[in-house]
Design brief:
Elements (H helix, E strand, L loop, with lengths): L5 E5 L6 H15 L2 E9 L12 H23 L7 E8 L1 H11 L4 E5 L5 H7 L2 H8 L4 E4 L7
Parallel strand pairs: 1-2, 1-4, 2-3, 4-5
């Protein structure tokens, strides 16, 4: 197996952010890999007919700007990692953007937490982690952050 040098870690800045970031950073650090935290601000494609107000684009940009501040704080928190750490925020559809970014960065692995969506929501949307697993060109490690030891 080739050495894992670069790991993309999608984060969503929800209540599981600490668990996801800690677990992924620990795994990457053991391998001496660079960590790239990655967040996608939903662009709400498909809702265009409902969200035609011109200020919607401004709201998305403001949300991206606020998220970039959170990302900068997250990257600062993990500066101690041996392989280095960086962060990136984009606007788009989560699974597509994660896979595209991992390909552009020539990532050796994606480490992504699952949130355990079920029922109608999973049927209609599928989970982001599931879509990433099915479309990524590099290995994807998934884990349930709710089942990690505290």
């Amino acid at each position: 197996m080739d050495k894992i040098k670069k790991v993309v870690v999608p984060v969503d800045f929800t209540s599981t952010i600490d668990k996801v970031a800690n677990y992924a950073a620990s795994m990457a650090d053991m391998m001496g890999a660079q960590v790239i935290f990655f967040h996608v601000v939903n662009d709400f494609r498909g809702y265009d007919m409902l969200l035609v107000h011109p200020s919607f684009a401004v709201i998305k940009q403001e949300l991206k700007d606020k998220t970039e501040k959170k990302m900068a704080d997250l990257v600062q928190e993990y500066q101690h990692l041996k392989g280095g750490v960086s962060g990136k925020v984009v606007i788009g559809k989560a699974a597509e953007e994660i896979v595209t970014f991992a390909n552009q960065e020539k990532a050796d692995m994606i480490i992504i937490g699952t949130r355990g969506i079920k029922g109608l929501e999973e049927f209609l949307m599928g989970s982001t982690a599931k879509q990433v697993v099915n479309t990524a060109s590099c290995p994807v490690l998934t884990f349930n952050p709710f089942k990690l030891n505290k």
